[in-house]
From TrEMBL:
<feature type="compositionally biased region" description="Pro residues">
    <location>
        <begin position="15"/>
        <end position="25"/>
    </location>
</feature>
<dbReference type="GO" id="GO:0043138">
    <property type="term" value="F:3'-5' DNA helicase activity"/>
</dbReference>
<dbReference type="GO" id="GO:0045003">
    <property type="term" value="P:double-strand break repair via synthesis-dependent strand annealing"/>
</dbReference>
<dbReference type="InterPro" id="IPR027417">
    <property type="entry name" value="P-loop_NTPase"/>
</dbReference>
<protein>
    <submittedName>
        <fullName>Uncharacterized protein</fullName>
    </submittedName>
</protein>
<feature type="region of interest" description="Disordered">
    <location>
        <begin position="619"/>
        <end position="642"/>
    </location>
</feature>
<keyword id="KW-0378">Hydrolase</keyword>
<dbReference type="GO" id="GO:0000400">
    <property type="term" value="F:four-way junction DNA binding"/>
</dbReference>
<keyword id="KW-0347">Helicase</keyword>
<feature type="region of interest" description="Disordered">
    <location>
        <begin position="1"/>
        <end position="29"/>
    </location>
</feature>
<dbReference type="GO" id="GO:0009378">
    <property type="term" value="F:four-way junction helicase activity"/>
</dbReference>
<dbReference type="GO" id="GO:0036297">
    <property type="term" value="P:interstrand cross-link repair"/>
</dbReference>
<keyword id="KW-0547">Nucleotide-binding</keyword>
<feature type="compositionally biased region" description="Basic and acidic residues">
    <location>
        <begin position="626"/>
        <end position="636"/>
    </location>
</feature>
<dbReference type="GO" id="GO:0005524">
    <property type="term" value="F:ATP binding"/>
</dbReference>
<keyword id="KW-0067">ATP-binding</keyword>
<dbReference type="GO" id="GO:0016787">
    <property type="term" value="F:hydrolase activity"/>
</dbReference>
Length: 642
């Protein structure tokens, strides 16, 4: 009689469980577009140094730290690299990170001007938490601050699927917030994302420590100093006197500012009563950035489970306080036109629900003003006096450069110059400025009105007067543009400010301009071997077997299109004809669709790449009209081609 085995014996005799096979790694190149991956694009609409294409090509293959002489070139490289990675991965995501929100807005504007994304794919992540969650799943190009990005990385696991799709992380001035930027890169690596890292900064930035390179996964460094032969900033910024003309606001503007301040104080007092911000007695010390930081801190506390009963009222006060503080700054420094344009672009329901604010805007809109801001009157009187002090022959030979910040200011300055008989002026409000610059050099024009974004890319030669007008948010950039205006030494340099905070701000910058514009020759440690501090190799963003060829592309073909249109006319006009923004956008998209396959040539001996500048042939309209559809149907019908 056989006995049944004990439970212990039966367990011992069981066969060992099969070992679990490791999950094969996911394809890190999934989503790569083989057609777009045949080339990488570089825009030639702007005048750029010869070293920028080579730097862009290296950053596409390696995690790079790029240090360039000025902010324009930094924004240019970031925009070009973002657009190429955006093309290569149609379902991937690119992220631009900076320590402050104003820099993210500037980079987004630079991308729109240089190499535009599809508008529906772009988002500025200065939003509410639930809106950010939705945008991570639907958008592809993100502009976000380092503080907000760190909070997003530490949130729920649900966003990891979207985070793994990130293919490029661009960090501007990474040495300003080393801990946050290092944590972001480390967290993305832990999530399993296969992405490229691009850190960009200027030569007058803070020194980069060797230990930081490994934290940012840097394997390549590109450093380019300013060309001493084309950079007269040592003479201009340290020895040349810069005159500052201060404008008094006047009773009308003071009354509007006082009324707007009372509207803002209501929301600030409510936040102070809820213990969300400190004392609000000194209104001049409160900034929109400060309110934005307090709002972010409150939102993070809500995510931890601390929700106030009046949560909606607190968020409404934060929103309106930030909006009105910024509106007060715009009114004081730019005038009523900029104020109305600001509220028109915002156009939110909370602002329209405030009856007192609506009544104030209606009052401003219906008002009658001699000028949108007293500073425009000051500019008018200054230019008239400047021309009148010179004879007609001398006035015709003058070269005056007026640099402004806002587009509406360009149009208002243009209106002022129309009423000055001695003025032969043009306004550069887009990238098609070649003919106007040539006319300015030859003397056909004596006044150029240039936005702050376009000025670094033009070569003007000798200028008799440089007027820095409308210095609101970019005072450092404005003064830096003086040094970057290539050519002969300009004459008088004048800044125009309003009394109060703007006057104090520009005075401090002018007095301390040595520390602002001397290049930091210790931006990288001297005498230190950085190779041991960098990582070996970078993640492969391009699949094996692909070698994208460089293409120089004319993204904005307005000048070419106009020349073709006017060449058949009997009497061609010497200036370029206007073109609608819709046609410009269509031309940019058309360039992407008709790329040629002619390869670039790489000179391995000299280490140079030679690119072919593409002239895109004329293409049919992208939008088919009803007449086009009827012709297509007739062609398809039997006998339609006869």
């Amino acid at each position: 009689m056989s006995s049944n085995p004990s439970p212990e014996q039966s367990l011992d005799k069981q066969p060992p469980a099969p070992q679990q096979q490791p999950v094969p790694p996911a394809n890190i190149h999934a989503g790569f577009d083989p057609h777009s991956g045949q080339s990488w694009l570089f825009p030639v609409d702007f005048v750029t140094p010869d070293y920028l294409p080579l730097i862009v090509e290296k950053t596409l293959y390696h995690n790079s730290l790029v240090i360039l002489p000025n902010r324009f070139e930094v924004s240019f490289v970031a925009a070009v690299v973002m657009h190429n990675v955006y093309r290569w991965y149609p379902f991937g995501k690119v992220v631009f990170i900076c320590s402050n929100r104003k820099a993210t807005q500037d980079q987004r504007a630079a991308c729109d001007r240089l190499m535009k994304f599809v508008p529906s794919d772009v988002v500025d992540m200065a939003l509410k938490p639930h809106e950010r969650v939705r945008n991570w799943a639907t958008k592809r190009a993100f502009f976000i601050t380092s503080h907000t990005m760190a909070g997003e990385m530490a949130r729920q696991e649900a966003e990891r699927v979207a985070m793994r799709k990130i293919k490029l992380v661009v960090i501007e001035d990474p040495q300003l917030d080393v801990r946050a930027h290092s944590a972001i890169i480390q967290k993305l690596t832990e999530m399993g994302a296969n992405f490229r890292v691009l850190c960009v900064t200027t030569t007058h930035g803070k020194t980069v420590e060797p230990a930081q390179l490994k934290q940012w996964h840097i394997s390549n460094i590109e450093l380019q100093w300013g060309n001493p032969q084309e950079k007269p900033d040592e003479w201009l910024m340290n020895k040349k006197e810069i005159s500052n003309i201060v404008t008094v606001l006047g009773t009308v503007m003071d009354g509007l500012l006082a009324e707007l301040q009372l509207l803002t104080q209501r929301y600030l007092a409510n936040l102070h009563a809820c213990k969300q911000i400190a004392n609000t007695s000194l209104f001049e010390t409160i900034t929109a950035d400060h309110i934005r930081q307090e709002r972010t801190r409150y939102e993070l506390s809500v995510l931890t489970g601390v929700v106030r009963k009046n949560h909606f009222e607190v968020m409404r006060n934060f929103h309106m306080a930030e909006k009105l503080v910024l509106a007060h700054r715009i009114l004081a420094r730019d005038g009523v036109v900029a104020l109305m344009d600001y509220f028109h672009l915002q156009n939110d329901a909370l602002g329209q629900a405030d009856s007192e604010l609506t009544a104030f805007l209606h009052k401003v809109r219906q008002g009658v003003y001699t000028a949108p801001h007293p500073k425009f009157t000051t500019l008018d009187n200054f230019l008239r006096e400047f021309f009148q002090q010179r004879t007609s022959v001398v006035a015709a030979a003058l070269r005056i450069l007026i640099v402004v910040e806002r587009t509406d200011a360009v149009l208002l300055v243009n209106r002022i110059l129309k009423n000055i008989p001695e003025s032969k002026h043009r306004c550069l409000i887009d990238s098609n400025y070649a003919s106007y610059v040539d006319q300015f050099r030859t003397g056909e024009l004596n006044v150029l009105v240039v936005p702050v974004e376009i000025e670094p890319s033009i070569e003007l030669g000798h200028t008799d007067l440089v007027v820095l007008f409308n210095i609101t948010d970019h005072p450092l950039e404005f003064l830096c543009h003086i040094a970057r205006t290539r050519g002969g030494q300009p004459g008088a340099i004048v800044t125009m400010t309003t009394e109060g905070p703007e006057q104090e701000e520009i005075t401090e910058i002018i007095n301390n301009r040595r520390m602002h514009y001397y290049e930091n020759r210790d931006i990288l440690p001297i005498g230190v071997d950085l190779s041991d501090s960098m990582v070996r190799g970078s993640p492969a963003l391009i699949p094996p077997g692909f070698q994208p060829k460089g293409r120089h592309v004319l993204f904005n073909r307005q000048a070419t299109t106009v020349v073709e249109a006017t060449s058949s006319c009997a009497s061609p006009s010497p200036t370029l004809l206007p073109i609608s923004p819709q046609l410009v956008v269509a031309e940019k998209r058309r360039v992407l669709e008709v790329l040629s396959d002619s390869p670039a040539t790489y000179d391995a001996i000299n280490g140079c790449t030679y690119y072919q500048v593409m002239q895109v042939p004329s293409q049919p309209s992208l939008v088919r009209t009803p007449g086009d559809k009827q012709e297509a149907e007739e062609a398809k019908s039997p006998g339609g081609g006869q």
